[in-house]
Amino acid sequence: MAFELVMPRFGMTMKTAKVIQWLKEEGEFVEKDETVLVAENEKFTNDVQSLGAGILLRKVAREGEEYAIGEVLAYLGEAGEAVPPAQTGGEAAAAAGAGGGAGSAGSEPGFAGSAGAGLASSAGDAAVAAGSAGGTGVAGSEPAGSAGLTAGFAGFAGTRPGFAGDAAGAAGSAGGAGAGAPIPAAGASPGPAPARETAPGAGWTDAGGRSRVIASPLAKKLASQLGIDISRVQGRGAGGRVEKADVEEYAKTVAASAAGRPGGGAGTETGGGQAGIAAGYAAGQATRAAGQTVAGRGADQAAGYDAGSAAGRDTADAGSASLPVAAAYTSVHYTGMRKAIGGNMSQAWTNIPMVTHHVTADVGELLELREKLNADAADKAGRISVNDLLMKLTAAALVQTPVMNATFESGEIRVYKHVNLGMATALENGLIVPVIGRAEEKNLFEIGREARALGAKARSGRLTYDDTLNGTFTVTNLGGYGSVDYFTPIINPPQAAILGVGRIRETVTPVNGEPGIRPMIALSLTYDHRIIDGAVAAEFMKILTGFIDRPFRALMGEKP
Amino acid sequence: MAVMNLRQAIQNAMDIEMGRDPRVFIIGEDVGRNGCSFGQYNGLPDKYGDRRVVNAPISESVITGMGVGAAAAGLRPVVHHDFIDFLGCCFDEILNQAAKLRWMLGGQMLMPLTIDVFAGGGSASASQHSQSLEALFTHIPGIKVVTTSSPADAKGLLASAIRDDDPVMIIHNKGLLGMTGEVPEGEYLIPIGKANVVREGSDVTLVSYSRMVHECLGAADDLAKEGVSAEVIDLRSLVPLDKEAIFASLEKTGRLVIVHEAVGKSGFGAEVAAVVAEEALDLLDAPIRRVTALFSPVPYSAALESAYFPDKSKVISAVKSLGLVKQ
Which CATH class is domain A337-555? Predict the structure, then answer.
């Protein structure tokens, strides 16, 4: 009996993951629990393993494309066993979770009904363009969803809502059965896999989880008609508002990237769905622009437009002295890890009344200790770092102040028996916090080894979700840059506190009543004042700085 | 076509309408043989006599009340007031009589009353002679309210108002009295309830009426030099409102700036904005902007007055605030 390999969930916030690489070929035998492919979500790279033994009968997923949790990635079974040729509409909808794609098409058949005859000639052209660009690929590949979208597009081309009209009719005849019969198309077509560019079905299903996007009503309506997730569109209106032109530009980008893929854009194998629609839209707009004098929204806009549209605007824009907007900045999408970090930080900043204590500690003895420990280290990789020592001492101090080793979640304060120490680690494009579990039970060398291993994994993108789970306290160390003394770290929710470590500096300080020069380190402790009071935090810092002052004794287990 | 100024256009319309219909007469302060305040009825007392150009005592209440009674009795009076500012004195005649009678009597009588009035400032005439109070009357069901922005419009709308069987308030702007323009000769009617697209454009819609239409046109000229194509709509008729003209324009532009000389608070621009938000939100690609007078009595000082009223530069600023001109 053939069985499915589906996209697993790698983390609480995961919605989709991208298939990075297939490790097995069709026809190859796969053991139970053997890794079949590698997938990556916003933070982690994970192995996707088979839940049973069998021959890989058909790869459904494509490398480089996103799949929602539960979507079928492959079929396994016995040799020669029949499997579904490809995803059908029914499966796509089911896999998307709540059937968002099909649902929205079903609930908005009115798109076709409200299509209008407004700009008759250009509407006709646009619809024909939609038909030839999106073609039957649209109808065949994204069954329910894209049929609705096709009709929606035709409605837009008409521009004048309120009348059943020529535009819808034109789309219907040019675009094949898709626009004409939105609902029955579901499941009827054994066509190829849907285009995955933005997975409109899945994207819209998760409305509750997405943050609000500032966009004009017109931009929202257009994005909805084109099946574009508006949160992916970079807004360039006043205050960053997404406007119609931004959606149009995004649609063209999608169309262009679809055209660049094998079989894309032309409404064949992979080019159906959104890409086809976007291509059709771009073509339609080009037609409109050519037939109409568009007095300039500026050369800046023209820069991002397709050739047809740009040509239409060039004459109108001649003499415009404004610089192209595109030249003024690089647009970076706020997605993936960046968005995940942003969400966490905003949540903490908004919800947690945070206080930060600053203190300087003498690390003279700690540096001596480190030197002695490293004197006979076999190789550089085995050397103990200042951070290793601070992690170890922090774990020891947390054992003495258990209330600092806590999380605040589900309405209760959870004080932990073990110290799972998070280690904030900078990446090229972000930040991740792998966790050293039961740090209080580990000796200094174990902590050092684990910290180095986790750091390397993080930087090479091989960290798994499990590596970041269950942290109870976080240390974030900017000391290595030599440019930061104190700072105000933001709590890694739901944890109760975070320790920021600054640089070590030779500082003139009283030593036995005389001015002396000592290496001093800057420490900043941010805590959640809802559950920790200043006295407790001060007590924790007193213990920690005491340990740092006398690290030999602390490491030997002496209590303060 | 003849070139005439706005007061001549009014005189021309009155002459034609009085000539073609003996039921039409004028009543107002200073409209008689000794001349009228703005000269718009010059010659008519001599031509039609004292019984058809009635010079009334200084009582807005009496003047308007007589108009209501005459209209109810079958005449087609043109009640003239020099200043919209003083309609408070005859508000009951307008609000509770003119606007209501035809409805309360189940349509058994007509109310072909025209209230012809001047509004607007800009001539350092202080708080009581400079206001634009049209919104007070657009709030009253039963009265049509139209505004004029050119000599031709004054002629065509006044004639239509006189021939309308409902009360129509036609509001001219004192600042446009001397404006000259081509005016069709002979009988000329402009339908009430239709807006006038006075300039076509594709980037932003400037909805205005009365004197501010000209500030919008000036702004559109300047904006064109910066690559922004502004469409200017003169509403002409506030009640009934030509919503379709606004929506059709927004389908092209996606951006709406409303400009009027009256103060913004509870002004007619608020009604336009609300209608668009309720019925055509999806056409908007940017927030709606209003450019209006400041919410204070009209200042007497010419310097303050010019800062108080909207003008071309304020319209341009509003358009630019929509992100249309990138610096």
Answer: alpha beta
